[in-house]
Amino acid sequence: xxxxxxxxxxxxxxxxxxxxxxxxxxxxxxxxxxxxxxxxxxxxxxxxxxxxxxxxxxxxxxxxxxxxxxxxxxxxxxxxxxxxxxxxxxxxxxxxxxxxxxxxxxxxxxxxxxxxxxxxxxxxxxxxxxxxxxxxxxxxxxxxxxxxxxxxxxxxxxxxxxxxxxxxxxxxxxxxxxxxxxxxxxxxxxxxxxxxxxxxxxxxxxxxxxxxxxxxxxxxxxxxxxxxxxxxxxxxxxxxxxxxxxxxxxxxxxxxxxxxxxxxxxxxxxxxxxxxxxxxxxxxxxxxxxxxxxxxxxxxxxxxxxxxxxxxxxxxxxxxxxxxxxxxxxxxxxxxxxxxxxxxxxxxxxxxxxxxxxxxxxxxxxxxxxxxxxxxxxxxxxxxxxxx
Length: 388
Ligand SMILES: Cc1ncc(COP(=O)(O)O)c(C=O)c1O
What we know:
Elements: H1 9-12, H2 18-31, E1 37-38, H3 50-62, H4 74-88, E2 97-100, H5 102-114, E3 120-125, H6 129-137, E4 141-146, H7 157-165, E5 170-174, H8 188-198, E6 202-206, E7 229-233, E8 246-249, H9 252-265, H10 271-280, H11 284-308, E9 321-325, H12 333-344, E10 346-347, E11 349-350, E12 362-366, H13 371-386
Parallel strand pairs: 1-10, 3-4, 3-5, 5-6, 6-7
Antiparallel strand pairs: 2-8, 7-8, 9-12, 11-12
The structure holds pyridoxal-5'-phosphate.
Pyridoxal-5'-phosphate (PLP) is lined by residues 42, 102-104, 128, 174, 178, 206, 208, 233, 235, 241, 246.
């Protein structure tokens, strides 16, 4: 580093998003000719729905594709508001919808809009790693809340009460959760929303895996709170990861603040992706078929993985992940995942990405790939673990 100015301390404390590191290594092996099964990264193996791609193709041909308004194309904001009404029966005006460059940009906008420098946000652990890294990058404080398998890896109202007394400013909850796929069941979400209201805490609800549930549908926080901030995306259910388009639903009082932030930080989300996203709502039949494949993969893995020796897995309620306890084999999930990739060509993500304290004993498998691949993966894992 000699001769270079010193980088900011905050940025140096940012950990890698390990799943992306694993994906890079797995891709390099694939390019070198190895037969790799990707169970590391949480992305659909499918393209965007046909209607989305057709809209994008027409736009490439006919549109100028300039900047859009910072809060997004008015037609898309309206369509998303209609989607919220159709899906949950909750009415939100299009003026409360903010189109973002993936939910990832939505987090930055939401955190900056409600949290001051140094403020704390409660994050259930295990959880999506970028929450804590984005907070750290912005000079805010992740406040990890340890959850357990018995509680379906969800926080409780008592956890929220503690957050309040510990001086945090809010809670971020994902249901279905990544990496566990579990959901806040029964009255849990309502209780959490009530507890946030009592403790005067912000509630941010990451609803990116909504649409991908295998039993009861997930509830939106909007049904229980007028002040909740909802984060969502076209990446998962809509199978559009690389298009980088998502949305927020925000309380009226925050819209102008977020608009000013979006104007300055990103100008606008990508025009072509917003146009494609409008088309995605016409691809529901296709998307339901993809979801049916996830459901078959999930059922097969829940039956087969225990036979391989990975027998402590909570059946996921949604998303496309299983979080397997590997403590009978190792306490070092990173080394375990590295060996598994090198020796049998199955890529999975070590739990330490999602839970810095206990994640050494867990591995996350994504079942968004093809049924053949998932079956072959269980065959390889079974033979590998038998030899251990
Ligand atoms: C829980 C959760 N939230 C947010 C994201 C970010 O998604 P995107 O920026 O593609 O919308 C992911 C990606 O895996 C995720 O798992």
